[in-house]
Amino acid sequence: MTVSEAQLATPFQLDPRAVVGELPGRKIADLTLSIGPHAIIRSFSVIYAGSRIGAHLETGHGAVIREENRIGDDFSIWNNSTVDYGCVIGSRVRVHTGVYIAQFTVIEDDVFLAPGVMIANDRHPICRDCMRGPTIKRAARVGINATLLPEIVVGEAALVGAGAVVTRDVPARAVVVGNPARVIGTVDQLTHSRSYLERTG
Questions:
Q1: Domains of the chain, residue spans
Q2: For 195, which DSSP code?
Q3: pTM to 2 decimals?
Q4: CB under 8 Å to 112, separation ≥6 — which residues?
Q5: The domain over range 12-198 is classified in CATH as 3.30.1360.170
Q6: Cβ atoms within 10 Å of 3's Cβ, excluding its own
């Protein structure tokens, strides 16, 4: 598939070492790939045929977006992160470095995934009959190296702490930490303290 066949809207910036329109290894009903205007696709990124992506896509180096995804506007995905197939992702979603988003995950608008976030979609590994990723609600934030297990719901504007393993639903605006993740408060209780660089003694 060529770039023109991929319906990459102008204007765009496409590194010649990126691949746009990679054919999937599985049969899908529709190989149409559309990417909205103002995309920036950096070297060694691979975007498969069969997805629809809005305006202002921006990839880091080595990002992968598989087939049959529906992604909104202003989606950024940084180095060596992967969106597997069959996901629904809203607008203004930011995916940092080294993130894996499993098949059939739903991510609403304004979500942030920090480096190293891992998302699972199968309670019984290698079983294809029950794959279903988590749902991450609007404006939720997931901290570095956190793991989200299948089918859970991270509530609107919730905060998942670094390294947490989320095994059950997270209430809206809750702060969760630990393994398994537990609620320790709400985002409304958070305050900005001085940077450790500014502390004395």
A1: 12-198
A2: P
A3: 0.92
A4: 93, 94, 96, 140, 141, 142
A5: no
A6: 16
